[in-house]
């Protein structure tokens, strides 16, 4: 069950974030992750079917499988298990593991997001 999207100021702020969303930047990032995973872990590659809209990208990345697969290749010394069970807890664990690897290789905390933000699709931006 998804959370209510809000109303009033909450809704207005969410809409502003979505306006700032950059489909081209999302496309580049998603294509890069698929390219990184193509040889070693092709089962985690995602077919975006050309839809890099905010909603489309969120739906394809919210399980965290592509994210953690790419992170495992980029930082093999920090490798984490990819959870394949499709329960919310396990999918959020994938996202959390991706964030742990990103933090471990020096990605600034200001460039990261909260696990629930990606899973629920709120307060998350891919903008320049």
UniProtKB/TrEMBL annotation:
Residues 23-128 form the Calponin-homology (CH) domain. GO terms for molecular function: actin filament binding. One of its GO terms (biological process) is actin filament organization. Signal peptide: none annotated. GO terms for cellular component: actin cytoskeleton. InterPro entries: Calponin-like (IPR050606), CH_dom (IPR001715), CH_dom_sf (IPR036872), SM22_calponin (IPR003096). It comes from the Eukaryota. It holds the Pfam family CH. This is Transgelin-3. The gene is TAGLN3_2.
């Amino acid at each position: 069950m998804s959370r209510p999207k809000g109303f009033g100021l909450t809704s207005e702020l969410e809409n502003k974030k979505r306006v700032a969303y950059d489909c081209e930047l999302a496309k580049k990032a998603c294509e890069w992750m698929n390219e990184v995973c193509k040889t070693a872990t092709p089962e985690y590659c995602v077919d975006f079917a050309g839809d890099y809209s905010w909603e489309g990208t969120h739906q394809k990345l919210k399980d965290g499988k592509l994210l953690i697969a790419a992170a495992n290749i980029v930082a093999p010394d920090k490798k984490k298990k990819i959870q394949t069970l499709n329960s919310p807890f396990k999918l959020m664990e994938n996202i959390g593991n991706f964030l742990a690897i990103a933090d471990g290789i020096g990605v600034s905390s200001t460039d990261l997001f909260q696990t629930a933000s990606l899973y629920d699709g709120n307060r998350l931006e891919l903008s320049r």
